[in-house]
Specification:
Length: 195
């Protein structure tokens, strides 16, 4: 029997419409958020082995700010060459089925919830069918519960949280596929600690 699960992450920087009518992604609190990357990792829940990864860029006809390009290392060319969210989700569905995955995801924070809402309320592409149930496992919440059990309070991002558990973040921060791989590693480590 497969012990595989999948982690789903979504990069959704905030943006606003500028005077020229272009949606420009910024680093500030704004009116609109648009997803630019969907990433997933299928992993063995016991060994932590990464079975495969998925990465899809979403082209929402936006111009990335210098801040977001520097934060994520996502280029304008990657976003411009991306697909619609509907096409990316179809690719993700096909990829997950090829791995025999038909369950709810794990994620760091609320990325799965945000992506589900984006799919269900997508004005550009019409509603996009969400295949992964209504729930998900928030690994960040599990980590915070573990820290409380240890008599400690901790809030922070995935890289610092991994360090607290003796793990090293691998890859580029703020990238959906990298976050998916590292969240999978956190999930497995926390499962070992709760044994």
């Amino acid at each position: 029997m497969k012990r595989w699960a999948f982690d789903l992450e979504f990069e959704q920087p905030q943006g606003k419409v500028n005077k020229a009518g272009v949606v420009e992604v910024t680093d500030s609190e704004t009116e609109k958020e648009l997803g630019i990357e969907v990433g997933a990792a299928v992993f063995d829940t016991k060994t932590g082995e990464i079975i495969g990864t998925f990465e899809g860029f979403v082209n929402n006809n936006i111009k990335l700010s210098t801040f977001i390009r520097n934060l994520t290392n996502i280029t304008q060319e990657q976003v411009d060459g991306g697909k619609t969210l509907r096409e990316v989700m179809k690719d993700l569905d096909k990829w997950l089925k090829s791995h025999g995955i038909f369950r709810q995801p794990v994620c760091w924070g609320i990325d799965a919830e945000i992506l589900r809402e984006e799919c269900m309320c997508n004005k550009t592409n019409g509603n996009i069918k969400w295949q992964y149930g209504k729930g998900y496992m928030n690994v960040k919440t599990v980590f915070q519960m573990y820290m409380e059990q240890q008599g400690k309070h901790y809030g922070g991002g995935i890289a610092n949280s991994m360090e607290t558990l003796g793990l090293k973040f691998e890859g580029v921060e703020h990238r959906a596929v990298t976050d998916a791989i590292n969240t999978a590693r956190m999930y497995v480590e926390l499962a070992r600690k709760f044994k």
